[in-house]
Batch of 3 targets.
Target 1
Amino acid sequence: MATTAIDSTSNAVFDDLQKSVKQPTKSLGKDEFLKLLTYQLKAQNPLKPQDGQEFASQLAQFSSLEQLTNINKALEAQSKNFGLLSQAMANANAPNYIGKSVKAASDKINFDGTKPPQFGYNLASNAASVQIEIKNAAGTVVRTIDASSSDLRNGEHRLTWDGKDSNGSNVPSGQYSINVVAKDVSGSLINATPFSFGAITAVRFKQEGTVAVVNGIEIPLGDIEDISM
């Protein structure tokens, strides 16, 4: 069968469209939609033009896409402005927290070489055993503590570490972390989340957000669970 002029034109338009698409996208944007619609009008058979009703439907889809795109941009801008406002309000109030006692979700503790650091953990349910591992900055366990029977019940428990390793020797000053391993009578793990507590001694405004300094540890304001006098 001989190739008609209309078929040749359609093929040429399709080739141009293929060349214009450099990389596939996950969704069809308004610019791509308009480009495809334009190519469709250029490539249609003059003897069988686009149905008026279908064409109007496509134009309505394009109009809806444009409106949804504008609404989405407006919502994104509003969300960004609200976030900046919330951050500014938090920064303005942050200095008022200095001197307040707080409890925060954190597994970090700081040892200054003399004062025994304090920490705590929450148990999701009663445990048969709780073992606290204290690790140095390199991740090495320097001390393992078995919780007493009174610290096996579900709820909050607060402890003090004497700053010694498993051999009874003093550890160097620095930052340490705690890992709590809790098990029930069948040996299954129980959810145990560590926390730090103490007074806020400073507030720092950093690029990644505002932090409170508690026992020498920087804690994001969002991680603070409790504030008291």
Target 2
Amino acid sequence: MKWLKTTVTYESPDTETAVALISEIFQAFGVKGVVEESPVTDAGVDWAEDAVATTANYGVTGFFPEKYHGEKQRETFQKLISELPPVIISSFTLSYDEVDEEDWAESWKLHFHPFKVTDRIVVCPSWRSYAARKDEIIIELDPGMAFGTGTHPTTALCIRLVEQFMTREMRFLDIGTGSGILMITAAKLGAIKPAGIDSDPVALEVAESNLLRNNIPADGFSLAEGNLVDTVDGPFDMIVANILAEIICNLVPDIPPILAAKGVLIVSGIIVEKEAMVLEKLHDFGFKIIETHHLEGWSAICCTRFE
């Protein structure tokens, strides 16, 4: 299978917002993970001595299955990028490069290193080594074609909130599970048989592989193919949805019947400009906001139902 490596190189006075906006457009086209390119070096990451050299420009790269991204899709993609606010994206260029699946897999792996999400949770690629401290929880991951590495701000926000609000023996559901990283996090924090749902069968295969890789037995989790919550039965004590803001708004009415009394709902994948829209929808359906967190232009909301 051929993949289309698509890079948006841009100039911006606000790179965090620029990355968030460009990433959301990639997500709208079904690209679940992107690679951020920056000329700034993070000298504080002491485990990434073998990281690839930084680029001369700021950019965001995503990979499209080439057969699903023809000329019309490229024109639409470019149009959406060009419509971003000039005060955020002052100029940009688009470049395309056809790559084989094997090259695609290796190219993004170069950018993925052990990543400390919280004081005790570390996400480690399956092909890299990491000397864990005694108190750390290690999530070993091979995102494959599903992505979801923990390095994206929305995933990091979700992991932090799951850690904060998870208690042992909670029933957990991950909507749009991708690589399974949030299910693994929940399982390692004591959730009972975490469940995941995704519309992409490839993502489900990747999630299953990652769960097993992290010593979670096959009868210790459940995965289902479906659209949002149409194939799951509650109630769940914690539900997480790390998806686009518009999809979250469509999802909210379906949450109350499957969320346990005093259960927690965590939603992310929301650029800060659309946070108010999601908050309004949650309020309309009787949710009480517990906390709202922000990171690099993205928002995560933790809420519960009114009693």
Target 3
Amino acid sequence: MDASKLLIHTTNSLNSAFARTDAIAGLALRLYLAPVFLMAGTSKLSHFADTALWFGNEDWGLGLPFPTLLTALAIAAELGGAILLTLGLATRAIAIPLIVTMLVAIFAVHIDYGWQAIADSSAPFANVRVDEATTKLARATRILQEHGRYEWLTSSGKFVVLNNGIEFAATYLVMLLALLAYGPGRYLSLDYWIKRRLMAGHTTPPTNV
């Protein structure tokens, strides 16, 4: 067997071996994202009036039109998305409004702060804001070490500065795009079994839905 045939054979073998792992990958993506959107939707629902005010205010908010309607739609997408992602039901359909939600979050809320969610000047994509935050955090740490119970204060974790960049929203966006492209995965999603039932008269079972 020459090198090219060996490469093709090896590639085909690997593809075959990993073909059915989409069940685990799809489930992992869905179960990772579901609590994220559950918490986001629950928070907006609990503070509906404040969220709508923030959506619509042009001075210190997002300045979006129809803020009450958009708040309701965001809550419906996030809470509905949490349920549907958990079940693997209508996965591609719910991924679309959730993708829109993430795009709004990225471009209306986070993009001005750069990439990083947590300020760390040693991490990639650090900007001036991050560098300044690192300096301020170092100063605050020294003050606490000199005048406070620093060991007790940091016993549950070290202090950080929230940079509020696009990092988390962009990560969730990429995960949703993967679900949109590849589906929820076989076996462990209702989409798979519904499609399998609908295709019962066909000889070829559904793949990743």
